């Protein structure tokens, strides 16, 4: 199955998250829609356990607690909308799904670039012990592999 639109909801509005979304778009050859929450201190009920003082110096009701950063990115790493760090809002973009096909022709890690004659994945279905304890005085037999008879 080919991914055309990758949705990545988050609470992380950092530059590193934005970089990850750009990478996913390019590597996956897909559109990335990342929705990030935006909220202010006044959006939370008053409660003594909310220790916003540990995070922010600004204790005003309109001070930002989560900065947002929702973004829409094309398969070519082009930011089509956002990131929105200003306010609560809705971002939109027109998506040309033909860009997905064009991106796959450019870099298709599971298609024409795959080399099954060189690389393969082998799945060992035999039961294995996740932990084996070994001491110097006792030799432990690994009974997780089938024994030839």
List the keywords:
single chain, 149 residues, alpha+beta, Nitrilase/N-carbamoyl-D-aminoacid amidohydrolase, four-stranded mixed sheet, two-stranded antiparallel sheet, 6 strands, 15% helix, flat, Nitrilases_CHs, nitrile hydratase activity
Number of strands: 6
**Portion of residues within helices:** 10-25%
Q: Distance between termini?
A: 42 Å
Unreliable spans:
none
Mean pLDDT value: 81
How many H/I helices? 2
CATH class identity of the domain at 5-106: Alpha Beta
Give the CA-based shape: flat
Task: Note the beta-strand portion.
Answer: 15-25%
| Biggest sheet details | 4 strands, mixed
- According to CATH, the fold-level topology of the domain at 5-106 is Nitrilase/N-carbamoyl-D-aminoacid amidohydrolase
* N-to-C series of helices and strands: EHEEEEEH
CATH architecture of the domain at 5-106: 4-Layer Sandwich
Structural class: alpha+beta
The largest sheet has its strands arranged as 1-2-5-6
In CATH, the homologous superfamily of the domain at 5-106 goes by the name Carbon-nitrogen hydrolase
Radius of gyration: 24 Å
Protein name: CN hydrolase domain-containing protein
Organism: Thlaspi arvense (Field penny-cress)
GO molecular function: nitrilase activity; nitrile hydratase activity
Family: Belongs to the carbon-nitrogen hydrolase superfamily. Nitrilase family.
């Amino acid at each position: 199955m080919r991914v055309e639109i990758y949705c990545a909801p988050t609470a992380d509005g950092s530059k590193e998250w934005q970089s990850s979304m750009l990478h996913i778009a390019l590597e996956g050859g897909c559109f990335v829609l990342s929705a990030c929450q935006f909220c202010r201190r006044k959006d939370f009920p008053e409660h003594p356990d909310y220790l916003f003082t540990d995070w922010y110096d600004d204790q005003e009701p309109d001070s930002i607690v989560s900065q947002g950063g929702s973004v829409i990115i094309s398969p070519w790493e082009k930011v089509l909308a956002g990131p929105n760090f200003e306010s609560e809002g809705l971002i939109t973009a027109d998506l040309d799904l033909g860009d997905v096909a064009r991106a796959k022709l450019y870099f298709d890690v599971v298609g024409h670039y795959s080399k099954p004659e060189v690389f393969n994945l082998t799945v060992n279905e035999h039961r294995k012990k996740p932990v084996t304890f070994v001491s110097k005085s006792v030799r432990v037999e690994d009974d997780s592999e089938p024994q030839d008879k």
